[in-house]
Write a structure and sequence with these properties.
219 residues; alpha/beta; four-stranded mixed beta sheet; 10 strands; 38% helix
Length: 219
C-alpha cells in the first residue's frame, strides 16, 4: 500500500498527505479484535508511510450514520467523516434528483455538527432496482431517484465545492463522487451509449470554473 501511495498520480491533500478512504470502518473492530487493535493497525500504516518519506496519510471514514463517523474518528483515529453513498429518502418510490442532492447536503451538515472534519459525498444517482433479482421482499427497498441531467449534476458538485469553501471543517478541500461505474446501482460517471461523456463534460466545466474563480450557484 505504501508503494502505491508513492506513485506520482496518487491524490494528496493538505500539502502532500496521501488521501485514503476506508469503507465499512466499524468492521475493522471485528477483524482486529477491538477498537484499540484496529487503531493500532492504522497507526502502523501511518508510521510506515512516514518511514518511507511520505507524509502522514489523511484517513477518511466512509459511514452512513454520523454517530459511526464520530466513533471512527474518536476511537479508531480517522481524520475525517464521509460516505461511499448517501441516498436518503423514504418510501419505495421514485423521487426527483434534487431530493438526492438534498440528502447529500443534509449529511454534510450533520457531519459538520459533530465537530469533526468532513469530506462531502456527491451522489451522481441512486437506483438499486436492477439488483432486486429475487422477486421477493428483500432489504433492497427504499426510494430511487430520477437520473440527473448533466447540468443538475454539475450544480450539485458546484454546491459541494462551495460548501468546502464556506466551512472550516472541510479542511482537506476535497469531494468524493459516487460513483465511476456503479451502473446497476444508479450511480455512474463512465460514458454510456445514451449520454456519451456528458456527465464528465459537466464536471470538467465545473472544475474549469473553480480554477478561474467559482461563480455563484444558479438557483
Amino acid at each position: 500500500l505504501v508503494r502505491l501511495l508513492k506513485e506520482p498520480t496518487y491524490q494528496n491533500v493538505l500539502d502532500g498527505r496521501p488521501l485514503i478512504f476506508v469503507y465499512s470502518v466499524l468492521e475493522m473492530k471485528k477483524w482486529a479484535g477491538s477498537s484499540e487493535a484496529a487503531k493500532q493497525r492504522l497507526d502502523d500504516l501511518r508510521k510506515e508511510c512516514q518511514k518511507s518519506g511520505l507524509k502522514n496519510p489523511y484517513l477518511v471514514a466512509q459511514v452512513y450514520r454520523t454517530k459511526d463517523g464520530i466513533e471512527a474518528v474518536d476511537a479508531l483515529g480517522f481524520d475525517a467523516i464521509s460516505a461511499y453513498s448517501l441516498p436518503g429518502g423514504s418510501g419505495d418510490q421514485e423521487l426527483p434528483f434534487r431530493e438526492l442532492a438534498k440528502a447529500n447536503s443534509d449529511f454534510w451538515n450533520a457531519c459538520k455538527a459533530t465537530g469533526k472534519p468532513v469530506v462531502p459525498i456527491v451522489n451522481t444517482g441512486w437506483d438499486n432496482r436492477p439488483r432486486r433479482t429475487d422477486g421477493k421482499k428483500s432489504d433492497l427497498r427504499g426510494p430511487w431517484f430520477s437520473e440527473p441531467t448533466p447540468k443538475e449534476l454539475g450544480k450539485h458538485l458546484r454546491s459541494a465545492i462551495q460548501w468546502n469553501r464556506d466551512n472550516a471543517c472541510a479542511e482537506a478541500n476535497t469531494v468524493i463522487i459516487y460513483a465511476w461505474n456503479e451502473s446497476d446501482e444508479g450511480g455512474w460517471l463512465v460514458p454510456t451509449l445514451s449520454e456519451g461523456s456528458a456527465r464528465l463534460d459537466s464536471i470538467r466545466e465545473v472544475l474549469e470554473d473553480v480554477r478561474g474563480g467559482l461563480p455563484a450557484i444558479e438557483k
